[in-house]
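Task 17 of the worksheet. Students: predict the tertiary structure of the chain below and write it out as structure tokens. Keep your answer in the requested format; marks are given for formatting as well as content.
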Amino acid sequence: MASAEGRRHSHDLVPLAALISREMKNEKLEKPTVRYGCASQSKKGEDFFLIKTDCQRVPGNPSSAYSVFAVFDGHNGNAAAIYSREHLLNHIISAMPRGLGREDWLQALPRALVAGFVKTDKEFQRRGETSGTTATFVIVDGWTVTVACVGDSRCILDAQGGAVSNLTVDHRLEDNVEERERVTASGGEVGRLSIFGGAEIGPLRCWPGGLCLSRSIGDMDVGEFIVPVPHVKQVKLSNVGGRLIIASDGIWDALSSDMAAKSCRGVPAELAARQVVKEALRTRGLKDDTTCIVVDIIPPDNSIQLAPPPKKQNKLRALLFRSKSKGSGSKLSKKLSAVGIVEELFEEGSAMLAERLGTDESVGKSTSGLFVCAVCQVDLAPSEGISVHAGSIFSTSTKPWQGPFLCGDCRNKKDAMEGKRPSGVKVA
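Model answer:
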């Protein structure tokens, strides 16, 4: 598999000059300024973060730059959080088709995020370590923000004008009815901790293992119905910009989304993260690792503009929200418009790989004519690939010979996540 992995980039054949020319035609001349701040307080040493502001869709072309911000909140040790910080971005990028212009790149990003999360989980579990981690992964490209999450770390958007909305979904069994139903349908049990005398205490947990979350990276000892398939949301901000607050549950157990946003309004991003952490510790004390990243997306004609204190909003204005794709049933987007329009480009939270990877036959096919696994990107001989839709029941119109395709190893993982075989049983 390792040698096949090394051959997967053989289809990077679009000339650099052509890509740069395409970018120059498609890019708007004015892009927002991105500024950020980060702060943390450690109690268990299991929170980690990633900040990378020099990524480029087209290597060597500064106009194709984008930024990545991520928070990883580990549990049962820090190994999964460290591994995800070091490998998740590369796994996402390796799942992106080559030679795409900006708009096509953004449209392909949600699928690549799913593949990258699943590959990171699969590769980490091979190490035999039992720790796990949440992951909230944010890509800022111009005015477009794409967020993928598993677990209960959170990303919120504080739009100009004071409207605050969540760009993530919390995968806590206590709060998420859909996830409880999915876990039990896949073979897990959901219940509280039983103590002597039959009393039940604490939050709802998944058994075996006793994890409070229904999605994470790692956690090989708690059953593969605890899945790494992320909820993904992509929005386009209006040209007045906005502020992102990305934080671990050490913040959100102490502060609501509105409280966190209000605690740092009018403060530059570099100081705002420290202000949010300070407010969380003042409210609850240091009971958990507490990490916060604040990202300001600022119009280019006013690079020092700060979000003003909220004013009374016109209710009609708050309803100006357009959607380009079907939602996943959540109600997160209702407050997203404050000034102008925040446009939803994509949202999906299904845990089914067949639904998340789609039916695009061009995905996972190299220019050499060979196919690659849609998750781990290894080359597949014509007789090796198994359609992600083989045996799928989510759509009667799906044809099992359609791509994308999975290698045998990734197909086994898909089956385990959907409860089609016992966790940990390897199929030859």
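Marker's comment: The chain has three domains: 31-171+225-351, 177-212, 356-428. The chain is about 25% helix and 25% strand.
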